[in-house]
Amino acid sequence: MYGTVARIKLLPGAEAAMMRLSKEYEGLGLPGHIATYVYKLDGAEDEYIMAVLFDSRERYHANAQSPEQHTRFERMRALMAADPQWADGEVIYAPGR
């Protein structure tokens, strides 16, 4: 598995819209997409961690480099107070692996 983790600072009041977009994107059935998790951080106003998992590095990068994903990201970015901080990597432990 491969994916990304992002630290996100949303604009005040943008949480509901971000969750709607996340649900919408989850329903697209992107090739290789396993799951997306969004954590609301304790004690941090409008700050979140998002983890996105794909079944392979190749499918992750194919999605990340697609024009469609760029459009989806721009919709999410409009809800953010700043650019997210990204960290991509291989999942080396997961239950059942």
Descriptive overview:
By secondary structure, this protein is α+β, with helices and mostly antiparallel strands. It has a single domain (2-90), classed as Alpha-Beta Plaits (2-Layer Sandwich), CATH 3.30.70.100. The chain contains three helices and four strands. Strands 2-3-1-4 form a four-stranded antiparallel β-sheet. The chain is globular and about 35 Å long. The mean pLDDT is 94.
- Main CATH class: Alpha Beta
Describe the largest sheet: 4 strands, antiparallel
Q: What is the tally of helical segments?
A: 3
> How far apart lie the N and C ends?
10 Å
Give the percentage of residues in beta strands.
Answer: 25-35%
List keywords for this structure.
97 residues; alpha+beta
Topology overview:
Elements: E1 2-9, H1 15-26, E2 33-40, E3 47-54, H2 57-64, H3 67-77, E4 85-90
Antiparallel strand pairs: 1-3, 1-4, 2-3
